[in-house]
Structure formats: structure tokens, C-alpha cells
Specification:
The chain is of the alpha/beta class. The protein contains eleven helices and eight strands. Helix 9 runs antiparallel to helix 11.
Amino acid sequence: MYCGKFFDTALSKDYVLNVRYMAYQSYLTAPHLLNQLNNLNYPLDGKVVADIGTGLGILPCLLKDKNTSKIIGIDLDKDFLKAARSINHAENTGYVNADGRNIPIKNSVFDAVFVRYVFQHINLSEIFISEIKRVIKDGGLLVIVDIEDDMNIFYPDLPESSKKLFGVYYEYQKLRGGDRSVSKKLPGFLLSQGFRDIKIKPYTFVFFNNEAKRADAEALKKAFLLVQNELELVKDALFYNKLITPVEFHKGLNEYFKFLNLKDDVLISKTEFLITCKK
């Protein structure tokens, strides 16, 4: 299966914990990414493609079946790239250890550039977007996927401890120069940076559970683990910055698990945006 190696990596003791958490996230979200790729309406046959912020390389792995000429995964984390190379070492796939704000690649190389869940960490960075503009060909496609926390819906209300935990995560990214509600700001930003043909497509992921129609165990597990793995990646930084205590962190997670298992109706809706534009 296309994401089987990510699951194996998540279970392996050969990698640091952050890599294993990221591998499991990649495994869980791969079907959503594949759906987005299949609905892109842009032929990638024979194209040279970059994936900035590639992580463990789930996008290059999925693009292997799209007949791309060359795929370059770019990431600042050496541990992530070490795992990416072991997961996918196809001939047409390469990896570059670099900050997206300083890419060691010559001008006008890529037909398409993917940037997934990066702007939430760096906000509307003109340095970053200028680097993308430099390495992409005239007429090349930029594909951005990012989150929009302002459009998250929870019914009934989350437990207070879970609200605090998610709020702390939001503030942590803000303190580091990020923005978890960045998607709505990106179209205007891209236009101001000279990109054209901007198109916006929302993808909403819904989890619904009630006593009459209980979600199957796998759906319930996935709804929880997606959140748990994302938070595990940053928990040490949250503790170091004294934004939340370990006791509060684990209480927030435990109460979220109980929330998902309520006998009453539970609905969670999370929206992210896929934005495409051309240079």
C-alpha cells in the first residue's frame, strides 16, 4: 500500500520519537492527500516538482504514481529527511536539507511547487514566497494546503481542559511567528506578490458519533490519534515555554478522548483550504 512504509516507520524503534509521530500522521492523512491530488486537475506527467516542508515525504511517495519527471522534497529537519530517504528512494525522487526561505536551487527549475502546512508556522513571509517565486518557472503552478482554525466546529462544547490545550497550541504557533488561521489571508497575500489565477477549494473533514449510530472503533481511534500525534510533536516545547504543565496537557488529551466517546451526539468539523495559483 502507498503508505505502508509510514506505518512501519511509526512502529520502528530505529527512529527518534518525532519521526515516529510524523510517520503516523502521514499514514493517517495519506488518503486525504491522495484525494486532493486526484482532484487537482493539473497534469503532473513529465513535470519537475518540489515539495517544500516535505516532512517524511508522503507527497513524493504518492506522486510516484503520477509519472512526474523529478520530485524534490525540501525540509529543514535532517531526521525527517533521513527517514524519507529510507521510505522512498525512487530514482526520480531527491531530497534537499534546507530552509524554504533559502533554497539552494537555481532559478526557474520547477513546473509545480507544493507547500503543505507550512504557512501556519511562518505566516505571510515575503522572504519565503519570494524564494518560491524564484525557483518556479513562469506559468508554473503553486499548490498550497493549510489549516483554518477559525472554522473548526465542535458540538457539544469541548471540555475546558481540552479548550485550554488547543488554545495553548494556537498561542505557541503565534509566539513562533505562525498563524493557525492563515488560510483566509493567503489569497490576498498571493495576489499582492504577483501570482495570478488564484483558485480556492475548501476541504472539510467531519467526524460524527452518536449512540444510535456509533462510529466504528477505527474511526474513533483515528479521530483521537490525529490530534494526539500532532500535539506530541510539540509537547516538549509547550512545557519548556511554560505554556502548559504536563498534568494539564495530559488532562486535556484524556478529556478529549472522553468527549469523542460521549453517548450524546458528537460532531467535529475541521476545514482546510487547497489554494492554487500561477506565477
